[in-house]
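Final report, results section. Input specification for complex C-07:
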Amino acid sequence: MISLTNRIKISLFDIMIYSIIIISIVVMVYPLLLLVSLSFSEPGAVMAGKVKLLPVGLNIANYEYVLKDDMILRAYFNTVFYSAVSLVLTLLFTSMAAYPLSLDRFRGKKLFTIFITVPMFITGGLIPYYLVVQKLGMINTVWAMVLPCVGTWNVIIFRIFFKENESLNDSAYIDGANDWVILFKIILPLSKPVLATIGLFTVVGQWNNFFGALLFLTDPNKHPIQMYIRKLLVEMQLSAKNPMAMGDIISRVTTRSVRAATIIATILPILFAYPFAQKYFVKGVRIGSIKG
Amino acid sequence: MLCILIKRLNDGIKPLNREINLYLMILPAIVMYVVFSYVPIYGITIAFKDYYISKGILGSPWVGLKHFEQLIGDPYLLRAFKNTVLLGIYSLLWGFPAPIFFALVLNEVGNSTFKRFAQTTSYFPHFISTVIVVGMLKEFFSLDGVINYLISFLGMEKINFFSKPEWFRTLYIGSGIWQSVGWGSILYLAAITGIDTQIYEAAVVDGANRFQKIRHITLPSIYPTIRILLIFSVSGILNTSFEKVYLMYSPGIYETADVISTYVYRHGIERGAFSYGTAVGLLNSVFAFFLLYMANFISKKLTDTSIW
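Structure output:
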């Protein structure tokens, strides 16, 4: 007899589950697809609201605009610059702070741990913070954006990781190596996963930073790309810095489509880094959640 | 003899020298904390003074509770407070269960490639900046956008979403869920994978179907995680995302959209009423801390999970 149980049973439950998941995938992905389509569509179709999923016509003028507009290019440069500086400063100072805190022999360990934990609960608020930055003369400088780079969560994550390698640095210490050497030549090379995770979070955070720029950067030339996109949102009008050089591109774009193109161009680097970084992110969150 | 003495001295100083390195390492971080965290905490005193930039914090005169009295009588502040609380509560109501639900559903997906694909696409929105999310919102919900296209296709009248106060909360919370459901589910999924499979096997023997397995095994196993996150979420009710509200609002919809953080920004920073703004901020922090304390206290009493 042929057994009927060889057939695959698809239960109602499965159908429900898969439907929900499919809906979720669509909802997550569709907005992105739509933006891509908008950025490649003919201006007329965009204005008339004809673009619903796929591009209407093929029009690369929006991306030409993005590549030619000085303001946009300047904003991208600023964003990359701020992200790079943030990355270096954060990884450097956070690891330097976490290392002593991971050592039992460090006599200041308890004091400093409390010292950096208190601000997690008590904060001075926005305005006193702003006033401090102002008093330090950092308004409208890159420092206001990148200098406050040591966050307690990050220090804790680094510290946990460093602690796992404690035996290594203990033996190096006994052999006479000084702590700088231990940190930079032994511990950090072993800490690539943590560096990658925190590093990526830092870069993404700075890449997406809008509030800092809004508060502290008054000169439009210093604005990162998020500020530029926001300007597009608010003004709904394109104001190219060098309209002459733009030539006829202007006639082939609309504010909405340029906005879509700029958004896509801004998300793109994150999209690329994303698959590589993914495993690190999830691992980092797990470490943070279990130990935190 | 001298040689031995010098050697002894060197041995004594060496550990100290070596320890100095550690202090030097942590120094930049400590300086940053002092400057960016502790000094602003001291700066809270501005709330009790009339702050003049020229006089600095120390030089500005004390005025006691003047700003707080002003606060109480301010109807716009009251409105902002109401909006903040409502936004927070609705966010919690819809936004808290969403990642849990999503994690439970995702966990039931058999095909692992499909599961991973679904997971990856779900965390992607978390990495998009607030500006871009609002940009998307404004694009899709504009009068010529896809949503209105759908609406008119179904025969109804187009809606100008961003100028109607009644739509603000829905848009804010909806986009918030879109951004955070995937990322938020990671924690729950991690907890779920820790559940002993033997319990499931025993349940199957007892005749449990998939629904029952979720209800009686999976869900209860993640209750501790849920509780802790709930405490944090409840205490975070007063934390609205300044960026998102700021980008989404306009004077026409202040009646639902103006929240404490945007109110402080407008008055404190844009209009330069530093002392007043600090007073508002201080009150907000105190309430938030009180919420955290209460949430933790209640949780400790009802169960034994708590943060401290």
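Chain B touches chain A through 85 residues (CB under 8 Å). The CA atoms of residues 231 and 295 of chain B lie 6 Å apart. This concludes the modelling results for the funded period.
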